[in-house]
Write a structure and sequence with these properties.
By secondary structure, the protein is an alpha/beta fold.
Length: about 325
Amino acid sequence: MRKITYAKAVIEALMEEMAQNEDVIYLGEDMTFGGCLSKMPELQKTYGRERVIDTPISEHGFTNLGLGAAMAGLRPVIELQFADFAALTFDPIVNIAAKERFMSGGRVKTPAVIRTAQGVGIQCGSNHSQIVESWFMNVPGIKIAVPSTPYDIKGLMKTAIRDDDPILFLEHRLSYYTVKGEVPEEEYRIPFGQANVARVGTDVTIVAWQKTYHDSMAAAEELASEHGINVEIIDPRTLVPFDKETVLQSVRKTGRAIVAHEAPLRGGPGGEISAIITEKAFDFLKAPVIRVGGENVPIPFGKIEFEIVPDKEKIKKAVLELVKKEIKETV
């Protein structure tokens, strides 16, 4: 199996889906140059300006355009250059796309993918580096994908484009050209709501995705070699729908759980996941669930951005504190 980048994997998914279905269109800014995300000028060169549409700099406007096209029978992929700009699209996504199927009694579908990049990594400051998953998790009717690996981003994107519901497809900008992985050349898709047990362990369960997934994998290797702690890592792949059972099975085995995410700790996904674990697996817990998240401050400009989000060392510290806390309480 060949190894390709995170960016290459999602480009392949888009190219293949557009080849297979003429109803798939793409909207975004600067598409003549390949867009802002994974730089794919071949998309417009291959499928033309009628299907790969350069839009004005108006996220609210072209998101409404794309959602209208979806309701009319097309399958648009709508690119927002930065996830922060999703704040400009709250009304069409939250009040139209998420509710139309319900309000129409199932007669009107909105099969649209809103694709954007989130997170730290390119030092763009408070308005261009935010994690936005928490903003939308409270909205019924939207599915949320958070792929961590090249394999997952391709398989999830192909699933998203074929789904009849609106999808918020959140990629991580730090991963585009720094993360490589094995991706099959043959056709495959990954179902939403199916988590990946990325590393099997017996002592602690870590639920993590995107940047914190890679940090957790690195931390797990060092914890094993330095302290003999065997960590199991669950990558949920999608936050909505969320694969509760895979997480609960792991926690019932290990008895300890950490949820690590880049979003601010306050109001972040970790609170919801911790509640699920506490409500459904309380009798199996040997220690309280620990959350590791971003600081509750705006993201600073420059390299200091890495100081306010979780990293390998912060995750290692949380694991050691969890094990230590259990031993202390037992004694």
